[in-house]
Design goal:
The protein is of the alpha+beta class. The protein has a domain at 8-67 and 153-314: DD-peptidase/beta-lactamase superfamily (Beta-lactamase). Helices cover 38% and strands 20% of the residues. It is built from twelve helices and twelve strands. The chain has helices at 54-63, 70-76, 84-97, 114-122, 135-148, 161-174, 195-207, 213-223, 225-228, 234-241, 274-287, 296-299, and strands at 8-15, 18-30, 36-40, 46-47, 181-183, 189-191, 193-194, 246-250, 254-258, 264-269, 301-305, 308-314. The strands form three sheets. Strands 1, 2, 3, 8, 9, 10, 11 and 12 form an eight-stranded antiparallel sheet that branches. Helix 6 packs across helix 7 (195-207) and helix 7 packs across helix 8.
């Protein structure tokens, strides 16, 4: 991560009335034209957006011919929780491709959701490629490859035609060049953007004409938020709290969201804490006059002591 301006406090955590520490990072708000209107830290800091790039990745796949029902398109943009309906949806996509779970290049993993993970362990079920939270995206990638006659065994390679197409779409939506390409946790390429570029990418997607690939993706995400995250995930609760909002969480404290009018928000917590990512996004949305009491459950995270709440994580960005 590169930055020219110092990180700022995005969240603090307290215990028994004492502020125990803070989570630092960077955050930005852009207007529908892509102009920065609010910034904390450096809006031009370069990051790996991780899974927050998935809406743009799914857009590139639609541009390449991916044609799925909305709930499955939302899953293609997801970091799913591994609930039964998620895994069944991954299998649906693979069937459409004429492939099986053995064709996935996701590493073996347990479900992201703790309840589902514990159920797997109790049942004696091992980590599987299907359980990895990116298996929906990977299944969609395989379907695109089959549809275009591209190799399916090398689809995560940055030089693969699919990944070349994804890079072009990401650069178009963000309005900037990708400076760094790495390997994400799922094995697919992860491409860097500035924080402002990440916010612009989703802002432009919600403003695209109806029927455009990027608009189809964000509409599917907004209408089927449970497929983007899961029944117990903050990203799902966030989209349900504000009608028309599109949001995508990413590993290492990244979050991107866009309001229906095209206002875009992106943030990166330096220490990667999910609890800070959640409350910071809720704080920024409330600062923009969005959500109100509907965001109350997301605006704080309880800190426990002796099994009872004794403090909380909150954001000063409200």
């Amino acid at each position: 991560m590169t930055s020219h301006r110092s990180a700022e406090v995005l969240a603090t955590y307290s215990r028994s009335g004492f502020v125990e520490g803070a989570h630092l990072g960077h955050a930005v708000v852009v207007d529908p034209a892509g102009v920065v209107t609010h910034a904390w830290g450096d809006p031009q800091t370069v990051i790996f957006p991780r899974s927050s790039n998935k809406p743009a990745q799914a857009t590139a796949m639609v541009e390449a011919g991916l044609d799925l029902p909305e709930r499955l398109l939302a899953l293609a943009s997801s970091s799913h929780s591994g609930e039964p309906f998620h895994l069944e949806a991954v299998a649906e996509i693979l069937i459409l491709a004429g492939l099986s779970v053995s064709d996935l290049r996701t590493p073996p993993d347990y479900p992201l959701d703790e309840v589902e993970r514990d159920a797997w362990v109790r049942a004696g079920r091992d980590a599987e490629p299907l359980g990895m939270n990116c298996s929906g995206k990977h299944a969609a990638m395989l379907l695109v490859c089959v549809s275009n006659g591209w190799p399916t065994d090398s689809y995560p390679d940055p030089a693969h035609p699919l990944q070349v197409a994804i890079r072009a779409t990401l650069e178009r939506l963000a309005g900037e060049r990708v400076a760094h390409v790495g390997i994400d946790g799922c094995g697919a390429p992860v491409m860097s953007l500035t924080l402002a570029g990440l916010a612009r990418s989703l802002s432009r997607s919600v403003q695209a004409p109806r029927g455009a690939p990027e608009r189809r993706v964000v509409a599917a995400m907004s209408r089927h938020p449970e497929y983007v995250g899961g029944t117990r995930r903050d990203v799902t609760a966030l989209m349900r709290a504000i009608p028309g909002l599109v949001a995508k969480d990413g590993a290492e404290g990244v979050y991107v969201a866009a309001l229906p009018d095209g206002t875009g928000i992106a943030l990166k917590v330096d220490d990667g804490a999910d609890r800070a990512r959640q409350v910071a996004m809720a704080g920024i949305l409330r600062r923009l006059g969005q959500g109100g009491s509907r965001l109350a459950a997301l605006a704080t995270v309880p800190i426990t002591g002796g099994g009872v709440p004794v403090g909380e994580v909150t954001s000063p960005l409200v």
